[in-house]
Write a structure and sequence with these properties.
This protein has 33 helices and 26 strands. The protein has 914 residues and is α/β, with parallel strands linked by helices. About 1% of the residues have low confidence.
C-alpha cells in the first residue's frame, strides 16, 4: 500500500474542499434564484371599452358583472351596410357589436413633443401606448422622465394595422407612424430607455407572450424595469367579415365563454400596460407591489387538426410548464383567468386542459374559480392577454373573484359537476380569496401562453412608517404642461383624496414629489395634516381665475444666497431641524466638534442647553457674547446650506453680511470648514481682551442724515453697515453712539439697538486688527468657486480673498445695499437668506424697486422651523427650481400610493383621406 506523502495535512485539504463545494453551491443557489426570482407587478395603466380609463374602473366593471359591448360607432364604419345576420354574401358580417373606445381620434401631441400633423400620421395604437404607458408609470409612482438612460425594456403585443389600411393616400414620412414594429420602439425613444424594445405578434396571445418575454429579460438582467403591454384598435370591417365568414363571431355580440349557447366571440379594442420589476429590487426600492408573477411559459400547438384549431395537449403542457417554473403545485391555484374564446369547441378544449392539470391533487375543499374578462369587454385580440392579466392582478389585490357575465348553462361538452371548479355569476357568487392564479392566452395560429400570479403580501414594498425626519407638515406638488391641465389635475386630486384618510397625506405628498414629472406649470401646497383643508386648497386652486404663468426652462432663475450676520442669533435657533434632519444635525455636530478646541463651552450646549430649547439666563448671555454668537451663526448657516444643497438648491452667487461673509467664503471654497470656524471665533476671542464699551444701533434714516449726526464723533463712531436707502447701522464707543442717537431721535428718527456684545466695523476693532492679521497670514486662501459679492465694495470680488481682505472686512462698513443692487443688475432674481431670521430678506427688498425679486428665508424667529423651510421650498418649486425629491424624502421614507394620472389635453389628430 502506498503511503501518503509526508507533511500533507489531509484534514486541511478536506476542509478546503468542503469550503470550495460550499462556495460552488452558493453560486448555484444564486443562479437558480436569479432564474426563478418572482417578478413584481408595480404599476398598471389601461384604456378599455365601457369608459374604463383606470384599473379602479376596470375592477368596478368586473365586480358588477358589467357589459361594455355596444353597437359599432358611426365614426368606424357603416354597420348597416355590412351587417347581414344570415351572411348571404361573402362581404357581410353577422355582428353589429364590439367593445370600443371613445374619441380614438383624440391625442395630446404637444405633451409628447409631436406636431399635430405628425400625430395625425401615427397609428392611434402607437398613440394609445404612449399615453397608457405614461399612466402606468405614474400609477407605479415613477417619474417617467427619470428613466432616461436606464436599462428599461419595452415589450408590446400588437397585430392589427387598420389605420394604415384605411389611408387612401399615405402621408410623406408616415412610415414610422404606421409600422407595427415601431410600437415598442417609439415608446423606448420617447422615454430614452436603453433596454430591449420588442414588438410581438402572436395574435390573441401577443401581450401575454410579451409578459413572458419581459420576465425572461428581467431575470437575465437585460432589463431592470419593464413596460409590457398590448394594444388593439378596430377601424375597418374587414376582420369582422373574415371571422364572421369563418363562423368565429358571436351573432349577439357577446362572448358567452363556457356557456352552452356560446357561438363565437365579439371583438374589442383597448390598451393595457403593466410595469414589472424583479421582486428584490421592488422591495429594496419601496415600490407598491400589486402582485407577483411567479412563473410563465409559452409553446405552440404543433400540427393539430388545423392551423387555427386549438390543441388540448399543448394547452396542458404550457400550464404544467408555467407551474413548474413558478414552483407552484396545481392544487394551489385558486383562480384561472381563461382565454375563454367563446366557441363550443374552444371552450371545451380549454376547460378540459385546465381540469386535467389543475385537478391533480385537488379535493372538493380546494375550490378553483374560472372566468374570462372577454365576457365584459370582448376579445381585445393582441391586447386580450394584458387585459386578462390586469383583471387577475385586481382579483388578487381585492381578494375576490368577480362574476362571469353571460353564463347560464355549462357547455354540453364540459362536466364540472361534482368537481371543485366553479364559475361565479351575479346570482351565484363564490367565496374564494385567491392567493395563486393562472392566466391563459392562446393565439389562433397556435402560440399558447400561461402565467402564474401570486397575491402580494401587504408588508412587501412598504416604504416605511417614517423615521427621524417625520413631519406632520408636508409639501404636495402638482405640475402640468398647460395651465388648463394643471387646474384639471388639481380637481382630480381633490376628488381622489376624498377616498383617503389624513394619515395618508405624507404618502400622497411623497408620491406627487417622487413619482411625477415636474413640468413648467406648477403649484405647491403645504399641508398641515388636515385632509379636508387640503382638499379645499386643491378645489380653490382648481377654480381660481388667477394665472400661474409658464416657466421657461431654458431661463432658470438665478439664486443668490444671503448669509446673515451677528445680531440675528437667538437661543434654540434651528432646534427642530437638529432633531428631525440628519444632514443638518451632522453638519452642526461637525462644527461643534471642531469648535471644542476654540470655545470654553461646547457650542451645542450653548445653543441647546440640556438638549432642549430653553431660555436659561446663563445660556442666553453666552450666546450673546461675540465669542459664541459668531461661531454659532457660522455653524447654523453652514448646516442650513448643507440641508438646502442636499435638496438640490445650489446658489449661483453668494453674499455675506458681516460675519456671514465667513460662511459665504467657506461654502465657495475660499477656505476650509475648520479654518472658517476658527476665523469666526478668533475676533470674539480677541475682542474679549478689550473693554466692553461698544454699541451698535440701527438707524432708520438715509446715510446722509446719519453721517451728519455722527460727524462730531468720527474718532469714536462709524457707519458699520449700509443696509438700505433708509436703514444704516452705526457702531463705536457707547457714549459717543448714545450722543449721536440722541441727536437723531430729537429729529424723530427711529433707532434700534442691536443684540451684540462688541462694536464691529468701528474704531473699537482697531486694537485687535494686527493680531487678527497675524492669524490670517498663517492661512492659505483660494479664489471663490462662485460669484462672490464683497461686503467691502458691494461688487463682485474678482480676485483672491486674502489676509488683507479679511483684515479690512473686520473694520470696514458692510455695503449690503450696494451688493443687492449689484446682484439685481446681474440678473439674480431669487434671494434666499441663510440664517436664523428673515432680517436680510426684509432689508434686501427695500433696496430695490417694489416687486423686484423673490425674497425667501430659511428660518424665522418665533415660527416653526420646518414650516419656514417648506414655505421657501414651495416658492422655489413654483419658480421652476428643480428639487432633489429623493434626498428631500430620504430620512422620512413613505409608501407610494395610487393617485390621479396626467390629464392629457387632447385634440383631433386624424387623417381625413380615408
Amino acid at each position: 500500500m502506498t503511503r501518503p506523502p509526508e507533511g500533507r495535512d489531509y484534514g486541511q485539504l478536506m476542509q478546503n474542499a468542503l469550503l470550495e463545494l460550499s462556495a460552488l453551491q452558493a453560486k448555484l443557489n444564486t443562479l437558480e434564484h436569479a432564474a426563478t426570482e418572482p417578478i413584481a407587478v408595480i404599476g398598471i395603466g389601461c384604456r378599455f371599452p365601457g369608459g374604463v380609463n383606470s384599473p379602479e374602473e376596470l375592477w368596478l366593471l368586473c365586480k358588477n358583472g358589467g357589459d361594455a359591448i355596444a353597437e359599432v360607432p358611426g365614426d368606424r364604419w357603416d354597420v348597416d351596410a355590412y351587417y347581414d345576420p344570415d351572411l348571404s354574401s361573402y362581404d357581410k358580417t353577422n355582428t353589429r357589436w364590439g367593445g370600443f373606445l371613445a374619441n380614438i381620434n383624440q391625442f395630446d401631441p404637444a405633451f409628447f413633443g409631436i406636431s399635430v400633423s405628425e400625430a395625425a400620421s401615427i397609428d392611434p395604437q402607437q398613440r394609445l401606448l404612449l399615453e397608457v404607458s405614461w399612466e402606468a408609470l405614474e400609477n407605479a409612482g415613477y417619474d417617467p422622465l427619470q428613466l432616461a438612460g436606464s436599462q428599461t425594456g419595452v415589450f408590446v403585443g400588437i397585430a392589427t394595422c387598420d389605420y394604415y389600411k384605411a389611408m387612401t393616400a399615405i402621408p410623406t414620412r408616415a412610415g414610422t407612424g404606421i409600422a407595427n414594429s415601431m410600437a415598442a420602439n417609439r415608446l423606448s425613444y420617447f422615454l430614452d430607455v436603453r433596454g430591449p424594445s420588442v414588438t410581438i405578434d402572436t395574435a390573441c396571445s401577443s401581450s401575454l407572450v410579451a409578459i413572458h418575454t419581459a420576465c425572461q429579460s428581467l431575470r437575465h438582467r437585460e432589463s431592470n424595469l419593464s413596460l409590457v403591454g398590448g394594444v388593439n384598435i378596430m377601424l375597418l370591417p374587414e376582420v369582422n367579415i373574415t371571422f364572421s365568414q369563418a363562423g368565429m363571431m358571436s351573432s349577439d355580440g357577446r362572448c358567452k365563454s363556457f356557456d352552452a349557447t356560446a357561438d363565437g366571440y365579439v371583438r374589442g379594442e383597448g390598451c393595457g400596460v403593466v410595469i414589472l420589476k424583479r421582486l428584490s429590487d421592488a422591495v429594496k426600492d419601496g415600490d407598491r407591489i400589486l402582485a407577483l408573477l411567479r412563473g410563465s411559459a409559452i409553446n405552440h400547438n404543433g400540427r393539430s387538426v388545423g392551423l387555427t384549431a386549438p390543441n388540448g395537449l399543448a394547452q396542458q403542457a404550457v400550464i404544467r410548464q408555467a407551474l413548474a417554473n413558478a414552483k407552484v403545485a396545481p392544487h394551489e391555484i385558486d383562480y384561472v383567468e381563461a382565454h375563454g374564446t367563446g366557441t363550443s369547441m374552444g371552450d371545451a378544449i380549454e376547460l378540459q386542459a385546465i381540469l386535467a392539470v389543475l385537478g391533480q391533487g385537488r379535493t372538493l375543499d380546494l375550490p378553483c374559480g374560472l372566468g374570462s374578462v372577454k365576457t365584459n369587454i370582448g376579445n381585445l385580440e393582441a391586447a386580450g392577454g394584458i387585459a386578462a392579466f390586469i383583471k387577475t392582478v385586481l382579483c388578487l389585490q381585492h381578494g375576490e373573484i368577480p362574476p362571469h357575465p353571460h353564463f347560464k348553462t355549462i357547455n354540453l361538452h364540459i362536466d364540472i359537476k361534482s368537481t371543485p371548479f366553479l364559475i361565479p355569476t351575479i346570482d351565484r357568487p363564490i367565496d374564494i380569496k385567491p392567493r395563486f392564479a393562472g392566466v391563459n392566452s392562446f393565439g389562433f395560429g397556435g402560440t399558447n401562453a400561461h402565467v402564474v400570479l401570486e397575491a402580494a403580501e401587504e408588508s412587501r414594498g412598504a416604504g416605511g412608517a417614517g423615521g427621524a425626519g417625520e413631519h406632520v407638515k408636508s409639501l404636495l406638488t402638482l405640475s402640468a404642461k398647460t395651465e388648463t391641465a394643471l387646474r384639471e389635475l388639481a380637481s382630480c386630486y381633490a376628488d381622489s383624496l376624498e377616498n383617503y384618510t389624513a394619515e395618508s397625506i405624507p404618502d400622497i405628498c411623497f408620491t406627487t414629489n417622487i413619482g411625477r414629472s415636474h413640468f413648467n406649470h406648477r403649484h405647491a401646497i403645504i399641508s398641515s395634516g388636515d385632509l379636508p383643508h387640503l382638499i379645499s386648497q386643491l378645489r380653490t386652486f382648481a377654480t381660481s381665475k388667477q394665472t400661474t404663468g409658464r416657466l421657461q426652462p431654458q431661463n432658470r432663475l438665478k439664486i443668490a444666497f444671503l448669509f446673515a450676520g451677528q445680531g440675528s442669533q437667538y437661543l434654540g435657533m434651528g432646534w427642530e431641524l437638529y432633531n428631525s434632519q440628519p444632514i443638518f444635525r451632522a453638519a452642526l455636530d461637525d462644527c461643534d466638534r471642531i469648535l471644542r478646541s476654540y470655545l470654553d463651552r461646547p457650542l451645542l450646549e450653548v445653543l441647546y442647553p440640556n438638549g432642549e430649547q430653553k431660555e436659561r439666563a446663563e445660556n442666553k448671555n453666552s450666546l450673546d457674547e461675540t465669542a459664541y454668537a459668531q461661531p454659532a451663526l457660522f455653524a447654523l448657516e453652514y448646516a442650513l446650506v448643507k440641508l438646502w444643497q442636499s435638496w438640490g438648491i445650489e446658489p449661483d452667487a453668494v453674499m455675506g453680511h458681516s460675519v456671514g461673509e465667513y460662511v459665504a467664503a467657506c461654502v465657495t471654497g475660499v477656505f476650509s470648514l475648520e479654518q472658517g470656524l476658527y476665523l469666526s471665533a478668533e475676533p470674539g476671542r480677541l475682542m474679549a481682551t478689550q473693554p466692553r464699551e461698544g454699541q451698535m444701533v440701527a438707524v432708520f434714516a438715509a446715510k446722509e442724515i446719519v453721517e451728519e449726526a455722527i460727524a462730531l464723533y468720527q474718532d469714536a463712531v462709524a457707519i458699520a453697515a449700509f443696509n438700505g436707502p433708509t436703514q444704516t447701522v452705526i457702531a463705536g464707543d457707547r457714549q459717543a453712539v448714545s450722543a449721536a442717537i440722541a441727536r437723531l431721535e430729537s429729529d424723530f428718527i427711529m433707532t434700534r439697538e442691536l443684540n451684540v456684545a462688541h462694536a464691529f466695523h468701528s474704531p473699537l476693532v482697531d486694537p485687535i486688527q494686527n493680531a487678527f492679521e497675524q492669524t490670517l497670514r498663517q492661512m492659505q486662501f483660494h479664489p471663490p468657486c462662485l460669484p462672490f459679492i464683497s461686503h467691502l465694495s458691494g461688487e463682485f470680488e474678482p480676485g483672491v480673498l486674502d489676509a488683507n481682505y479679511w483684515r479690512s472686512q473686520l473694520r470696514s462698513p458692510v455695503r449690503f445695499d450696494g451688493g443687492i443692487q449689484t446682484l439685481a443688475e446681474a440678473g439674480y432674481e431669487i434671494f434666499l437668506e441663510i440664517g436664523p431670521t428673515d432680517t436680510l430678506a426684509s432689508m434686501g427688498k427695500r433696496c430695490l424697486p417694489k416687486n423686484t425679486g423673490t425674497w425667501l428665508s430659511s428660518l424665522r424667529q418665533g415660527h416653526d422651523n420646518w414650516r419656514s423651510l417648506l414655505d421657501s421650498l414651495a416658492t422655489l418649486y413654483n419658480k421652476g427650481i428643480n428639487i432633489n425629491w429623493s434626498e428631500f424624502h430620504r430620512d422620512s421614507p413613505r409608501q407610494r400610493v395610487a393617485l390621479p394620472t396626467y390629464p392629457f389635453q387632447r385634440q383631433r389628430c386624424w387623417i381625413d383621406s380615408f
